Structures are given as structure tokens and as C-alpha cells.
Amino acid sequence: MIIMIAAVAENNTLGKNNELVWHLPNDFKRFKSLTTNHHIIMGRKTFESFPKPLPNRTHIIITRQTDYNPEGCIVVDSMEKAIAACPENEDSYIIGGGEIYNLGLPYADIIEITKVHHTFEGDAFFPKISKSEWQLVESEENFKDEKHLYDYTYETYIRK
């Protein structure tokens, strides 16, 4: 299955200047537990926002740059080629950024969202989830605490 995974503000902001604009340690742990040992599809800018490749995951990077070839990664020039590079009978994750989510939405079977209950200024946004195409099947509220400045909810959507 193709699964899109993202942390999204109330106004669909993903980030600004190629960085997250919030810090939710439990969301990082959830992201790691869901994506470890899977293929992850991302854009070049998202890949370059990491200090190093994420361990125990196969990185598929979509870019228009023909000479881009980071060690140990699969580099392609389209979402179709990225999906074709994923194992057929395994879960693969689309992890961003904004343009990649827009390209990936038609291929997604599931969307895993961490909804951050706040609005932020940003320059990258998650596509609007159409209630006519997607059904919310799971929702888990989490409340701000000493490590989390904002309330947030894990939401799982499946395509209708």
C-alpha cells in the first residue's frame, strides 16, 4: 500500500524554509515506528533537510536534477517511477514535502496525519483532504505537556 504520512497544522502548513515549525517528540517516534524498514518517497528538499539519511529505510528521492545521486538512495524524476521502485506487496510511505504530497495523493491508499492544533505561517502545505474521497477511520487525541507545546491528534484516513 502507498501511505502518505505528515504532520500538518490546522491551516495545512507543513513547514517554512524547509523546516518544521513545531517540535513534537512523540510524533517523531510515531513516524519512526511506522516508516522503519520501509521505502520512503520524498522530494530532494525534504531529503536535504535531514542531517543524514534516516536509518533502516530505503530512500527514494524525486528530483528534476539529472546529476543528483546521493549515496545509498534511489533517485527518480517522477512519482510514477518512485512508486514503481517500491516493493509491490509492502507498505511504502510518501513523506513530503508539499509538492510531493500533491503528486502522491492520487496514488495513496491511506493517509496518516498528525494534526497539530495550531496555525502557523508557512511556505509548504499539505493538500486538502476531500471528505468525499477519504474516510477518517481512527483518531487519537494527544495533549500538550512539558515536551509538546501544542495539542495534536493522530488521524488515519482510508480512500473510500
TrEMBL record:
Keywords: NADP, One-carbon metabolism, Oxidoreductase. Gene3D superfamilies: Dihydrofolate Reductase, subunit A. Pathway: Cofactor biosynthesis; tetrahydrofolate biosynthesis; 5,6,7,8-tetrahydrofolate from 7,8-dihydrofolate: step 1/1. Residues 1-159 form the DHFR domain. Its EC number is 1.5.1.3. It is an enzyme of class 1 (oxidoreductase). PROSITE patterns: DHFR_2. InterPro entries: DHFR (IPR012259), DHFR-like_dom_sf (IPR024072), DHFR_dom (IPR001796). GO terms for biological process: dihydrofolate metabolic process; folic acid metabolic process; one-carbon metabolic process; tetrahydrofolate biosynthetic process. The keyword NADP applies. It holds the Pfam family DHFR_1. One of its GO terms (molecular function) is NADP+ binding. The keyword Oxidoreductase applies. GO terms for cellular component: cytosol. It comes from the Bacteria. SUPFAM superfamilies: Dihydrofolate reductase-like. It catalyses: (6S)-5,6,7,8-tetrahydrofolate + NADP(+) = 7,8-dihydrofolate + NADPH + H(+). Belongs to the dihydrofolate reductase family. Key enzyme in folate metabolism. Catalyzes an essential reaction for de novo glycine and purine synthesis, and for DNA precursor synthesis. This is Dihydrofolate reductase. It comes from Flavobacterium johnsoniae (strain ATCC 17061 / DSM 2064 / JCM 8514 / BCRC 14874 / CCUG 350202 / NBRC 14942 / NCIMB 11054 / UW101). The lineage of its organism: Bacteria, Pseudomonadati, Bacteroidota, Flavobacteriia, Flavobacteriales.
